[in-house]
Design goal:
The complex is a heterodimer of chains A (160) and B (629). Chain A has 160 residues and is α+β, with helices and mostly antiparallel strands. Chain A has five helices and nine strands, in the order βαβββαββαββαβα. Chain A is elongated.
Chain lengths: 160, 629
């Protein structure tokens, strides 16, 4: 399964950040959230950014204590806090900013897909965040793109 | 704990800041947000002071539930003595500032004095600094916010700012965050301008701890599902508050040409469906599932390219129906301009429409208007007047002081055409067919205002037992009837006093949906968030305490029953058009006075509108001002 982000549907409300921090740390604090909505106020663009659970994860490669392991059930990359020394190299190297630093609890944090039931997805009413089978990821994109073609074709083929 | 958020007292004259705890007793009595703001106003503002002087106290209050992931919990109030009305000044706004303020460790600010030169407050993780704002003075509201984030190299900063209207002391200047969130009514931006306070910027990384986080999370999900399940919110999510216009203009419940018609003939072009041409999607406030505002783009015309957010129903009326401008683009441009200048959309639209009627009647002419032909439907003139008022240029300078001072300057014959209560202009609603709305704007503690009560549930012809269950007494389901409407107004006033103090969004209460969360749900949210137990009745008493505190403030400033009324035209001129139920309706003076008597009795106020001794005692207001904060 994949956590699919569709920025076109995002309304920028940051509900995902709120519920993520409550679920994981029992407090409301966007800096403890594993997901973050990047916003451009004057152009109205909102893009939620979260760990992509990469197939070849740089965070895992650079980790000096081998603390990042994949959960075979969900595919999420998880931090083993017993091994983690908090060097933050993973946070430095991740190209998406998928690893954050929770200053209040002194640890690196990342999306764990909530054991296969992501709370951000549950709360995201506009469905900018969805949890979908990985195989259907590009099928959904293809259908969305094809819809635009189909509208065009309907216009072209319509009797004049 | 969430209850450990502080209050800061800032004296801009002395450059002094004192930070204190907020006693739990204050929470039980006033919750937070508007409630504690009103307590502060009553306790810190001496009667009769100049609203633009150093003694006026500007308060900012995040709601008690601010930050929870439900029901639009990011709302907050900004309050002071109003420079527009001299009564309670108070404006409730959305966006992200309140949540950030709480993350930075504060719930309330009380700001007095006047800074020597322009300043802004920088609030971060328990600390407050007064910073130089010379480089921000003269910037518009968007530029100011951007400049502050650049100053601190932090895009997450939330700033509430004033634009040049506030700097120029336009009496109805507002306070703004983001592209659209506005503390619009009663001129709070003018008060900030008078204090040379350009902005308040907040950024925090402090935990907001809840009493029962797991239960709260589950219950918030339930609440969000409940509200997004209502048909009203489904419409809001697609169209925003612009959806209301389709009903009111069709029915005949709208002001057109100031107050001459109750329907706009060419008004179809303003209907929300036309937004599809401009809208690129919706936008939400902090942690809100309703996301009711459009993000829109104009790619053609003299103001293109332009990106803006909104417009609300209010702007459709302010720049569309009232001046009779059948142009959605005019509404979109004007909406953007008022946001940029930092000026109240409702007040400026109403005051321009008033000037247009004066122009039509020959009370003012081109000599006074600097050559502008203020004819109905002259869209360019409406836009031009916005520039002139914000900059206080020529005729704009006359209107910039508000409608009552403008009457003084223009002449007595202009008074009859002014559509206002207590010196603040009415919304573009036409309340003549709806006695509940008419009473609501007449009694509102902050001058003409539809959001102190907005008693709209009788518009649906609901069964009367449903209305009785909500209001706790008989209410007629006929919206043109006067029966039970005082009860509606009273009930909504208490309800919204509580909602504003919790920091929730009115749209996510019984605003237009009977099945939206009410007192029972709020008591649970308060319990899971803070651990404090309230009964429904106790919460209603808090609402009554807050509303009566506002009333006491106004009485102290010289307001009384005589001010709880409507302008003559409501009584004299019947509505000319609209659906049969909305047509040929004017307010019946006798029935209106009867409603007012009933309304005072429900509040526990005398026939003069003053709280009785018994009421003060019951509400624990008999020892105010008590200076607990």
């Amino acid at each position: 399964m994949t956590l699919l982000v569709d920025p076109e549907k995002c309304t920028g409300c940051r509900l995902c950040e709120t519920v993520c921090s409550i679920k994981h740390e029992k407090v409301c604090n966007p800096t403890s959230s594993r997901i973050h909505v990047v916003k451009w106020m004057t152009s109205g663009v909102y893009i939620p950014m979260v760990c992509q659970q990469c197939d070849s994860p740089i965070c895992q490669t650079v980790c000096p204590t081998d603390s990042i392991k994949r959960d075979n059930k969900t595919g999420a990359l998880l931090i083993d806090y017993d091994k983690c020394v908090g060097c933050r190299i993973c946070a430095v190297f991740c190209p998406f900013g998928g690893i954050g630093i929770d200053v209040n609890r002194g640890k690196v944090i990342k999306c764990d897909l909530c054991e296969g039931d992501p709370v951000c997805v549950k709360f995201c009413d506009p469905e900018a965040l969805q949890y979908v089978p990985t195989t259907s990821l590009n099928l959904m994109k293809q259908r969305a793109a094809a819809e635009k073609f189909s509208e065009l074709m309907k216009k072209l083929l319509a009797p004049t | 704990m969430v209850l450990n958020r502080k209050i800061a007292y800032v004296d801009l004259s002395k450059g002094k800041i004192v930070i204190n705890d907020i006693p739990n007793k204050m929470r039980r009595l006033y919750l937070g947000g508007r409630g504690i703001d009103m307590y502060l106003l009553y306790n810190h503002i001496k009667p009769g002071i100049d609203a633009l002087g150093p003694e006026n106290t500007l308060t900012i209050g995040a709601g008690l539930l601010g930050g929870i992931p439900a029901l639009g919990s990011g709302r907050y109030d900004i309050s002071a003595k109003s420079p527009l009305t001299g009564a309670v000044g108070d404006s409730n706004m959305g966006g992200f500032f309140a949540a950030e303020l709480r993350f930075a460790g504060f719930d309330h600010l009380a700001i007095r004095g006047i800074a020597e030169k322009p300043v802004y407050l920088w609030i971060h993780d328990g600390e407050i600094e007064i910073k130089d704002a010379s480089h921000l003075w003269g910037k518009d509201t968007f530029e100011t916010q951007t400049a502050i984030t650049e100053d601190h190299h932090d895009d997450e900063i939330e700033s509430m700012v004033i634009g040049i209207a506030g700097e120029n002391l336009v009496r109805f200047a507002n306070v703004r965050t983001g592209m659209k969130n506005s503390g619009g009514r009663t001129g709070m931006g003018c008060v900030m301008g008078s204090k040379k306070l350009k902005a308040i910027a907040a950024r925090g990384t402090m935990d907001l701890e809840f009493a029962y986080p797991d239960e709260l999370l589950d219950y918030c999900k339930e609440m969000n599902d409940k509200i997004t399940g209502t048909r009203w919110v489904k419409a809001q999510q697609r169209w925003g508050s612009m959806i209301i216009y389709s009903n009111t203009n069709t029915t005949g419940l709208i002001r057109c040409r100031n107050f001459q018609y109750n329907r706009m003939e060419k008004g179809d072009v303003l209907e929300c469906e036309n937004m599809d041409k401009y809208s690129i999607g919706m936008s939400g406030c902090y942690a809100c599932s309703v996301h009711c505002r459009h993000r829109y783009i104009l790619t053609e015309g003299p103001y293109a390219p332009l990106f803006g957010e909104g417009p609300e129903y209010t702007s459709q009326g302010a720049f569309g129906t009232e001046p009779d401008c059948p142009s959605l683009e005019t509404v979109l441009v004007a909406n953007h301009l008022v946001n940029k200048y930092g000026i109240d959309t409702l007040e400026i639209g109403s005051i321009i429409a008033w000037a247009m009627e004066l122009y039509e009647k020959g009370i003012i002419d081109e000599k006074m208007t600097d050559g502008l032909r203020l004819e109905w439907g002259n869209c360019d003139a409406v836009i031009e007047m916005i520039h002139k008022i914000a900059k206080r240029e020529g005729f704009g300078n006359i209107l910039a002081d508000g409608i009552l001072p403008a009457i003084e300057k223009i002449g007595k014959e202009s008074e009859y055409y002014a559509i206002q209560v207590k010196g603040m202009s009415n919304l573009h609603s036409d309340e003549r067919p709806t006695p509940s709305f008419a009473l609501g704007i007449a009694t509102s503690t902050r001058g003409s205002d539809h959001l102190r009560s907005r008693p709209a549930l009788d518009l649906y012809g609901l069964p009367e037992d449903v209305l009785k269950e909500i209001y706790g007494g008989p209410v007629s389901s006929d919206y043109t009837s006067y029966d039970g409407k005082s009860r509606m107004v009273w009930w909504h006033e208490l309800s919204y006093a509580v909602v504003d103090s919790l920091g929730l969004c009115k749209f996510q209460t019984t605003f237009l949906a009977v099945n939206a969360p009410r007192y029972e749900e709020w008591t649970k949210l308060i319990y899971y968030t803070t651990g404090m137990k309230f009964s429904k009745e106790e919460l209603m008493t808090v609402g009554e305490r807050i509303y009566t505190t506002e009333r006491m403030f106004n009485i102290r400033e010289g307001f009384s029953r005589k001010d709880d009324t409507l302008v003559e035209r409501y009584f004299k001129e019947p509505t000319p058009i609209g659906f049969p139920m909305a047509r040929n309706k004017n307010i019946d003076r006798k029935k209106f006075e009867r409603m007012l008597n009933e309304y005072y009795a429900l509040h526990g106020w005398s026939l003069e509108g003053e709280p009785t001794e018994q009421t003060l005692k019951k509400l624990e207001l008999d020892r105010e001002p008590s200076r607990m904060l």
